[in-house]
Amino acid sequence: MKSIIAFSLLIAAASAYGHGSSYVSRDDHNIATGYHHVDEHHDSKDYYHHPSYKFEYGVHDPHTHDHKSQWEHRDGDVVKGEYTLDEADGTKRVVKYSSDKHNGFQAHVERIGHAHHEQSYGHHY
């Protein structure tokens, strides 16, 4: 009977914590099971910290003619970025994007240059 009560408390703690989330912290588990542990140095991770990152990369391969780049910055719920790539038709695609809680995801696509296609004279099987 005690295990059923402990399990019920554990489920209630998890539901209250994350509105149905399956994440249960060590402290929720300790409350549900009646176990108390004094720990001066918490080793649990803060899964709700302020997200922030920056990255960028680029490829310029003269052998394959693969040319592309991307950068992105995130600060909390605001994301901004851009990527470029050389298309097979000779144009360059530039996509600038942003996302935040007020405007949602927005992207502006630009094509630079004039498309040119090679002529095909017959089928090669």
Detailed description of the structure:
The chain is an alpha+beta fold. It folds into two domains: 32 residues; 61 residues, no CATH class. The protein contains two helices and five strands. It has a five-stranded antiparallel sheet with strand order 1-2-3-4-5, with no helix packed on it. Helix 1 runs antiparallel to helix 2. It is elongated, with a radius of gyration of 26 Å. It starts with a helix and ends in a 13-residue tail after the last strand.
* Biggest sheet statistics: 5 strands, antiparallel
Sheet with the most strands: spatial strand order: 1-2-3-4-5
The total number of structural domains is 2
Q: For the record, give the distance between the C-alpha atoms at the N and C termini, rounded to a whole number.
A: 75 Å
Q: What structural class results from the helix and strand content?
A: alpha+beta
Order of helices and strands: HHEEEEE
Radius of gyration: 26 Å
- The poorly predicted ranges are 1-33
- Shape category: elongated
Total number of strands: 5
Percent strand equals 35-45%
Number of helices: 2
Helix percentage: 10-25%
Mean pLDDT: 75
